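Forwarding these from the shared drive since the link keeps breaking.
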Amino acid sequence: MSGPVVNYGLASLPGSSQPRAITIGKFDGVHRGHQSVVDQLLAVAGDAQPTVITFDRHPHVTLKPLDAPLPIISESQKIEMLHSAGIARVVVLAFDEELSSLSHRDFTRTVLVEGLGASVVLVGSDFRYGEGGKGTIETLREEGAEYGFRVEVVADVCEEVGQRVSSTLIRGLLEHGDVSEVAKLLGRYHAVRGEVGQGFQRGRELGYPTANVTNNLEGFVPADGVYATYVTHAGVRYEAATSVGVNPTFGDMNQRTIESHLMNSSLDLYGATIQVEFVAYIRGMKKFDSPQALAAQMGRDEQEIAGILEGASQA
C-alpha cells in the first residue's frame, strides 16, 4: 500500500482544484483521541479528500523554547499512522515565525482556502489559530461562511477510554514507565525504532545477546527499567526483554541505551532497523554485585516476561 500524499511547507500546498476535508493539530502520538478525530473526519468528508494539517515541531519550540516537550513519535511515524487511519494527504507546516505571525484570517485564506480548497474543517472545542491564538471556533465559522466551508467541532471525550486523552498525559506516563496504561490511551503499544549499533557485547558474554538501538532513534524513550517488549524486524515480530538506561552494574556508561534481547531467536541485527514495542514495565534498573548476579536476574526477568507476553494482546 502506497503512503499518503505529503506536502511540506506553505509553498508546497496543492491549491484548491479539489475539495478537502481538513483537521488541524499536532497529532503527537496519534493516540485514541486523535484516532477519534480522524474517524469523525472520514465520516463528514463525503467526496472531499481527508487531509490533516500538522506541524514539524511543537509550537513551544518557537514560542516558548524552554518549555518545549519532547515528541512522543517522530514525524515519519506520525505520517505512517495517519495514513493507516485513513488520511489521504498530510500537510506538514513549519511552525516558525512566518507561520506563527499569520493572522487567523490570513491562515484561513492562505492555507485552508487557496492552499487546500477546504469544504469542511473539523476542530476541537479548544481550537485556537493565527497569531497569538486569536482565532477561535467563532472566527473560523465566520470565515467559513465567507469562503464556503463548514466547521465541525469534535467531541473532547474519547469513548473508548471514557476521558479526554492528551499527549501531555501520555508523555507523563512514559516518563514514569507506565507503558501498559499508555497502551490503553494509544490503542497500541508505544514504540520506538532505530538502527542497531555496536554495543559492549556484555549481554553476549552473559548468555543474553542484545540488539542496541543507538542510531537514528525515533520515538519517546520511556523511563529507565526493564520491560516486556516485542521487537519487529523485516516484518517479523519477536518476543523480547528490553532494558532502558545506563546499566549501573558496570558503571562505565553515561548515555542511556535501549538493549533488547530476543528471547527465542539468535538473529544478528547489527546495522538493521528495528522497532521496539513496550508492553509492560518489569522492574527498575539496579546495580548488582557481580555480572553473574545480573545474569541470574536476567533469567528471572525473561521468565516473567514470557508469561506476560503469552497473555498479551498482539495488537
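-- next protein --
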Amino acid sequence: MAYESILYDVEDQILTITLNRPDRLNAFTEQMRVEVIDAMDRADADDNVRAIIFTGAGRGYCAGADLSRGGGTFNYEERGYKPGEVVRDGGGVMTLRIYRSTKPVIGAINGPSVGIGSTMQLPMDIRIASEKARFGFVFAQRGVVPEACSSYFLPRLVGISQALDWGFSGRVFEADEALAGGLVKEVVPHDDLIPRAREIARTYIDKSSAVSVALIRQMFWGCLSADHPMEAHQIDSRNMVYMGANADAQEGVSSFLEKRAPKFSMKVSQDMPPWYPWVKEPDFADGVDADPSRLDDGLKKG
C-alpha cells in the first residue's frame, strides 16, 4: 500500500510511523486508520522490525477526528447506516490492531493529542511526551463518548478515578499532568523526544530475544483481563517450557556465562509457539443486535 496519511521508516530495526497531515495537526481520517492498520500488519510480518515508534509530523501529534463534516461528523446515519444499527467504531478497529502487535510499541507524543489522538495511544506499551505535548479525552465536550476501546484501556493504565476525572471534564491538560496521572512514562525536552524514544527502543532490541519480547507483550496484556492468577500460571508455564527447549534459551544462558552479547536466532514470523495466539478475539457481533454483514468494515463509509 502507498501511504498518503502516514510515513513509514525503518532504521536500525526501529520502525517510526509518523502521522502525516501536519497542515491539519494530523487530524484523524478513515484513510489514516486504514494505513496504520496496514503498517502494523507490515511490521509484524517483518523480522527486521523489532520495535515501533508512533509520532506526529509538525507541531501536533493528532488533533482528534477530522471535523470537516461539521455537526454531522459523528452521525453514522448520514454515512448510510440504518437508525439503531450497531456499527464498529473505526478507532477501536485500529487500537485492537495495535493491541495485537508482536513488537513493542512506543508513543512519542510531540504535541497536542486530543480525542482519538489520545485514545489511540492507550494500547501502546509506553508513552513518552515532549514538554510541548498536551492531552485531552474531550468527548463529553463534543456530546459523544470515548471510543477506540478506551473504556478498557484507560482505567487499567491510570486507575478508575483518574480516568473518570479526565473523561467527565473533557479538559485538555499538560504533559506534566499526564506524567503525574500515569498516562506517560516521562516528559522530555522537545528536541530530545525521538532520540529518547529510540534509546528506549534499543533497550528492547540489543540484548533481548525477539520471540521472548513478543510473548511477554502478549502475556502481560492478555492477562490484564484474567479472572484468576491461575490463568497466568497456565500460560506462563506453557511458554516457559516452550522457550526453554529452544535455541534462544540456550543462547541466552550461554552468552551470560561466557560474558558476551547474545546472538538470538529465533524469529517472530516462524518461531512462535503453536498455541499462539492463545487469546481469541471475540466476534464483535456476539451479544449485540446487529447485521453481521455491516460489522467488519469499521468506517469504510466515512
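The two ends are 19 Å apart (CA to CA). The chain has two domains: 6-204, 207-271.

- D.
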